[in-house]
């Protein structure tokens, strides 16, 4: 039988069929959503461009102020303060003499200058030795002494009396505490920035700069806790009207050919408080203690939890107008309060903990003579045994044999006067 040859037959291929995607019908809702989306994209882009343009415009309109470049000298902090009276010429000008001495006794300086307040008794208006005043750094250029005496005799706000060479000075009208004083000072004060780095005569130069817009009660150079000049000042005018007039000056005054950033002190304070509230600025914890009418408003010894509040803070505002904040160095619950700067009795949370650390424990409760209830505190030794004590675990003041700390030397005058 003959072999049969089977040839491979080509596989039948089905004709290709082109499949066309059928688009869903476009609805009015879809068209509207697409248009809205495109519109939002365009608007967002326009807003971004507008915001960027506003930033550029604001930057272009910013004052070209003179900035500080000095660095803090931590090794020799005294070098941070450049103030020096040596360049000032010796003079017997009665106008300058009266202006300077009257500044020391004015309400603003007297209430915030601890040395002046304690020397005059504040509102007690005790006479102060003129020789002491003449030893202030800024007074030393006024010569001779007789010229100082003659100048003060013509003062309309000061009285001078005493034997020749032993004269004393006091105010004609005693200082009167004013609850609204801080607010009034804030309202007549301005903030000005753009004075650059400090030189030995910067204080005097800035005073002369503001003199034509016065009378001025105070020109205060703002400094870091390390005494480095920030390039800005607080200026307190004699009246609110003078401060407002300065803020409205057009064109605004300039410093050495540079613009100045000028605003009211209240605006400056409000802006800083807002930044603190938003968490964008942390209040400085190293600021120097503020003094006002016989009280240290920040830091210091802190008193016994009463004067100036716990930890030495005042009940309301500090002298710069900042409102009190919840967190402070010391004070509050568990903070440093009563006592001489110690941690003993200031905070409620610390009381029991501190007693435990000192070896005291609460043993029992007994009734006092007036039927009240008071805790009995007993001391224990290292082995936990109770130690009898007639002082109820407390050391009497008489038992303190440690010598009293030496009195601090008071700088005769560190505050700089305004013109």
Automatic annotation (TrEMBL):
<feature type="region of interest" description="Disordered">
    <location>
        <begin position="279"/>
        <end position="419"/>
    </location>
</feature>
<dbReference type="InterPro" id="IPR012677">
    <property type="entry name" value="Nucleotide-bd_a/b_plait_sf"/>
</dbReference>
<feature type="domain" description="HTH La-type RNA-binding">
    <location>
        <begin position="87"/>
        <end position="177"/>
    </location>
</feature>
<protein>
    <submittedName>
        <fullName>La protein</fullName>
    </submittedName>
</protein>
<dbReference type="InterPro" id="IPR035979">
    <property type="entry name" value="RBD_domain_sf"/>
</dbReference>
<feature type="compositionally biased region" description="Basic and acidic residues">
    <location>
        <begin position="52"/>
        <end position="65"/>
    </location>
</feature>
<feature type="compositionally biased region" description="Basic and acidic residues">
    <location>
        <begin position="408"/>
        <end position="419"/>
    </location>
</feature>
<dbReference type="Pfam" id="PF05383">
    <property type="entry name" value="La"/>
</dbReference>
<feature type="compositionally biased region" description="Basic and acidic residues">
    <location>
        <begin position="391"/>
        <end position="400"/>
    </location>
</feature>
<dbReference type="InterPro" id="IPR036388">
    <property type="entry name" value="WH-like_DNA-bd_sf"/>
</dbReference>
<dbReference type="InterPro" id="IPR002344">
    <property type="entry name" value="Lupus_La"/>
</dbReference>
<dbReference type="GO" id="GO:0005634">
    <property type="term" value="C:nucleus"/>
</dbReference>
<dbReference type="GO" id="GO:1990904">
    <property type="term" value="C:ribonucleoprotein complex"/>
</dbReference>
<feature type="compositionally biased region" description="Basic residues">
    <location>
        <begin position="335"/>
        <end position="345"/>
    </location>
</feature>
<dbReference type="InterPro" id="IPR036390">
    <property type="entry name" value="WH_DNA-bd_sf"/>
</dbReference>
<dbReference type="GO" id="GO:0003729">
    <property type="term" value="F:mRNA binding"/>
</dbReference>
<feature type="compositionally biased region" description="Basic and acidic residues">
    <location>
        <begin position="346"/>
        <end position="370"/>
    </location>
</feature>
<feature type="domain" description="RRM">
    <location>
        <begin position="188"/>
        <end position="274"/>
    </location>
</feature>
<keyword id="KW-0539">Nucleus</keyword>
<dbReference type="InterPro" id="IPR006630">
    <property type="entry name" value="La_HTH"/>
</dbReference>
<dbReference type="InterPro" id="IPR000504">
    <property type="entry name" value="RRM_dom"/>
</dbReference>
<dbReference type="GO" id="GO:0006396">
    <property type="term" value="P:RNA processing"/>
</dbReference>
<feature type="compositionally biased region" description="Gly residues">
    <location>
        <begin position="299"/>
        <end position="314"/>
    </location>
</feature>
<keyword id="KW-0694">RNA-binding</keyword>
<feature type="region of interest" description="Disordered">
    <location>
        <begin position="39"/>
        <end position="68"/>
    </location>
</feature>
<dbReference type="Pfam" id="PF00076">
    <property type="entry name" value="RRM_1"/>
</dbReference>
<dbReference type="InterPro" id="IPR045180">
    <property type="entry name" value="La_dom_prot"/>
</dbReference>
